[in-house]
């Protein structure tokens, strides 16, 4: 499915990381083609001002420049102030961890001296990589060590959403998105910011759900390879693969001590966003994600419910891992007539405000159901409706993913994915690591098999509230 550029630019990266990668790749491919055309025409504009032979040469000089560029980019755009010492310590720790993993007993590297002076600390950063190359470059290669230095530097931030993508990782990502026979299993993956554990949320009707993957299952290994310490992007790439092939996940369910292996056959994943029904006088719409068609599906579902006689409404965002920012703004605007839906704020405090779109057509009274796996774009909609008092939020505290990532290309066609801003609800609430507390708290397991069944106490509570409030 090809997404419009505006939608791609608005992706909430962590939950649809592959799509955000496609946005970067499309721009990179276009830049390369334009540069080639200008070069053929003898133009001195655009990238011709760069020393291309120097940039694309190999060796320590290029590796040092890429490390420096990464350091400077993080320092300039990361959404919180960054201590140089954190980045330098992360670089050294990342290199040592790699060397130990490769069987280098007693690996040693220079311990950098941090002064707080940007130029001096950048030199110390160079010194660690230079030491690694001098000691181990012949065995592992300068470029591999540079990549591990950048990965370690970013890992020092303790931010699972800020990562480094090698040119090969981006190439594989492009293949999986553009014409290759690649598939997935139908899950969202998130990383608990407190424990670092990678959790999965299966999408209804997909191979993962059919194979028995449960909401909140923690991934321990993919195809026998432990994923501890891996980035979300890395885990996502390991799960994806050619359609018809099998991926084996070692997972541990909530409340269980023993892990289990689940074998899942990869498929091309095409999932409708909305499931709807009318029960008595209540229209019920469950939204699986915020995709490019979700607004149309949600609006049509509520219109259909009204035509069938519904007088009160439930929007179920439980286990909804998020998706497109634009979709969240459009769907929220059905209930919010004017004003702010969500704001993004970068480190200097620059605020980008997303206003209601004017598509006001409220199905009300409204209850919105949420739980601990309501995340990202879902939290934008739930937070906006709560702040505007356009509906009642029922369930348990949401996940608390309130940051946005941007992707920056490096000259060797690798890239940095960096958290550059945080989200605020219309009333200025920062939900990152905090989540949204419902107006009415109803505890219940996140097990999707409970949803819309007689054991669904949260839905029962929503219906009771609406029965009391409906006209």
Break the fold down into its secondary structure elements and pairings.
Elements: H1 5-9, H2 17-40, H3 52-55, H4 60-77, H5 84-101, H6 118-140, H7 142-155, E1 163-165, H8 167-177, E2 182-183, E3 187-191, E4 198-202, H9 207-211, E5 217-222, E6 225-226, H10 232-239, E7 241-242, E8 246-252, E9 260-265, E10 274-279, E11 282-287, H11 294-307, E12 312-316, H12 325-332, E13 340-345, E14 351-355, E15 366-370, H13 377-388, E16 392-395, E17 403-409, E18 415-424, E19 440-441, H14 457-469
Parallel strand pairs: 11-12, 12-15, 15-16, 16-19
Antiparallel strand pairs: 1-18, 2-7, 3-4, 4-5, 5-6, 5-8, 8-9, 10-11, 13-14, 13-18, 17-18
Helix pairs in contact: 2-8, 4-6, 4-7, 5-6, 5-7, 6-7, 11-12, 12-13
Number of domains: 3
Shape: globular
CATH topology of the largest domain: 2-enoyl-CoA Hydratase, Chain A, domain 1
How is the quaternary structure best described?
single chain
Radius of gyration: 24 Å
Structural class: alpha+beta
Mean pLDDT: 84
What is the CATH homology-level superfamily of the largest domain? Answer: 2-enoyl-CoA Hydratase, Chain A, domain 1
Assess the beta-strand content as a share of residues: 15-25%
Question: Helical proportion?
Answer: 25-40%
3D architecture notes:
- This protein is an alpha+beta fold and 471 residues long.
- It contains 14 helices and 19 strands.
- 45% of the residues are buried.
- Residues 1-58 and 176-180 have low confidence and may be disordered.
Quick description:
The protein has 471 residues and is an alpha+beta fold. 38% of the residues lie in helices and 20% in strands. The protein folds into three domains: 5-168, no CATH class; 183-265, Pdz3 Domain; 274-405 and 420-469, 2-enoyl-CoA Hydratase, Chain A, domain 1.
């Amino acid at each position: 499915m090809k997404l419009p550029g505006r939608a791609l630019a608005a992706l909430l990266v962590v939950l649809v990381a592959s799509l955000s990668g496609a946005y970067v790749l499309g721009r990179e491919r276009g830049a390369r083609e334009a540069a080639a055309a200008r070069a053929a025409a003898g133009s001195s504009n655009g990238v011709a001002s760069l020393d291309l032979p120097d940039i694309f040469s190999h060796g320590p000089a290029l590796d040092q420049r890429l490390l420096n560029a990464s350091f400077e980019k993080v320092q300039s755009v990361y959404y919180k102030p960054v201590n140089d010492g954190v980045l330098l310590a992360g670089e050294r720790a990342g290199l040592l961890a790699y060397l130990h993993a490769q069987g280098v007993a007693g690996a040693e590297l220079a311990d950098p001296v941090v002064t707080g002076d940007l130029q001096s600390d950048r030199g110390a950063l160079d010194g660690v990589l230079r030491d690694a190359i001098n000691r181990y470059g012949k065995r592992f290669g300068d470029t591999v060590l540079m990549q591990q230095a950048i990965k370690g530097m970013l890992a020092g931030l303790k931010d699972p959403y800020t990562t480094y993508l090698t040119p090969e990782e981006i190439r594989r990502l492009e293949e999986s998105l553009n014409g290759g026979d690649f598939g997935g299993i139908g899950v969202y993956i998130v990383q608990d910011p407190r424990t670092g554990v990678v959790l999965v949320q299966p999408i209804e009707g997909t191979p993962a759900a059919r194979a028995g993957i449960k909401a909140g299952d923690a991934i321990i290994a993919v195809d026998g390879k432990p994923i501890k310490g891996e980035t979300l992007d890395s885990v996502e790439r390991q799960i994806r693969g050619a359609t018809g092939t099998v991926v084996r996940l070692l997972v541990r369910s909530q409340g269980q001590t023993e892990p289990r292996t689940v074998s899942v056959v990869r498929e091309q994943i095409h999932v409708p966003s909305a499931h709807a029904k009318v029960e008595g006088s209540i229209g019920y719409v469950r939204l699986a994600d915020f995709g490019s068609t979700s607004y149309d599906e949600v609006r049509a579902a509520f219109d259909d419910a009204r035509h069938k006689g519904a007088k009160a409404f439930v929007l179920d965002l439980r286990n909804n891992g998020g998706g497109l920012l634009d979709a969240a703004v459009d769907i929220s605007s059905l209930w919010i007539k004017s004003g702010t839906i969500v704001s993004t704020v970068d480190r200097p405090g620059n605020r980008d405000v997303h206003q209601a779109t004017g598509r006001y057509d409220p199905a009300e009274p409204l209850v919105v159901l949420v739980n601990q796996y309501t995340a990202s774009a879902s939290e934008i909609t739930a937070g906006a409706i709560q702040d505007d008092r356009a509906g009642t939020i029922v369930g348990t505290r949401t996940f608390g993913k309130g940051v946005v990532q941007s992707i920056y290309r490096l000259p060797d066609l690798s890239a940095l994915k960096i958290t550059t801003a945080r989200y605020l609800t219309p009333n200025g609430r920062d939900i990152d690591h905090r989540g949204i507390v419902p107006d009415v708290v109803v505890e219940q397991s996140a097990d999707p098999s409970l949803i819309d069944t007689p054991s669904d106490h949260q839905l029962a509570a929503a219906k009771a509230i609406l029965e009391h409030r409906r006209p």
